[in-house]
From TrEMBL:
Transmembrane segments: none annotated. GO terms for biological process: lysine biosynthetic process via aminoadipic acid. GO terms for molecular function: holo-[acyl-carrier-protein] synthase activity; magnesium ion binding. It comes from the Bacteria. Keywords: Transferase. InterPro entries: 4-PPantetheinyl_Trfase_dom, 4-PPantetheinyl_Trfase_dom_sf, P-Pant_transferase_sf. This is 4'-phosphopantetheinyl transferase superfamily protein. It holds the Pfam family ACPS. Residues 86-161 form the 4'-phosphopantetheinyl transferase domain. It comes from Noviluteimonas gilva.
Length: 194
């Protein structure tokens, strides 16, 4: 089991774990097992349901917590927040030859401009960083990417992505933590207080 990540800037913020996950197998049993271990409850006691938009929610005595998970390749990333909205995204690194085209079509204009200005070898990594962070924010927000990847802009500030062009409908303020949980993977965790 991976040690849980707890940001040092405030108490009670999200924890995460990595799990090996075979493609095509349900993630929810692994999520319940980890939640049970962290919350010191039997996995069967974890009340987990999906809201009308399909977002997983904890219910009953656990409704003050929030959970998010993402799987890619052979990995599963699970995040748990206490009194915060939390979202996580995991992506396996691979070439994305249409990254600039996708950014122009779906990302905020400032993000497209940033990517366009990068040397080709750096562009793929930057695109993946943006994608993960944006998806994590939108998962935590509760609407997912259907809300619009272009509705807010992120920028690299001293090596970390931060929201520089917020959208009023997203609320906030948002915190984003990005990292490589395993070689060949990129991840982002986003959260905001409730």
């Amino acid at each position: 089991m991976e040690p849980a990540f707890t940001p040092t800037d405030a108490a009670r913020l999200p924890r995460w774990t990595w799990r090996d996950h075979a493609r095509g197998t349900p993630a929810e049993p692994l999520v319940r097992d980890w939640l049970g271990a962290v919350l010191e409850l039997p996995a069967a006691a974890i009340e987990l349901h999906r809201d009308v938009l399909g977002r997983p929610r904890l219910a009953g005595a656990l409704q003050g917590f929030d959970v998010s998970w993402s799987h890619s390749g052979d990995g599963l990333l699970i995040a748990l927040g206490d009194s915060v909205d939390v979202g996580v995204d995991l992506e396996r690194a691979r070439p994305r030859p249409r990254a600039l085209e996708l950014a122009q079509r779906f990302f905020h204009a400032t993000e497209h401009d940033w990517l366009r200005g990068l040397p080709e070898p750096d562009r793929n990594e930057a695109f993946l960083r943006l994608w993960c962070a944006k998806e994590a924010v939108l998962k935590a927000h509760g609407r997912g990417i259907a809300y619009g990847l272009d509705k807010f802009g992120l920028a690299d500030l001293d090596g970390s992505l931060a929201m520089t062009h917020p959208h009023a409908g997203l609320g906030g303020p948002w915190s984003v933590h990005e990292w490589a949980p395993r070689p060949g993977y990129r991840a982002a965790l986003a959260w905001r207080g409730r």
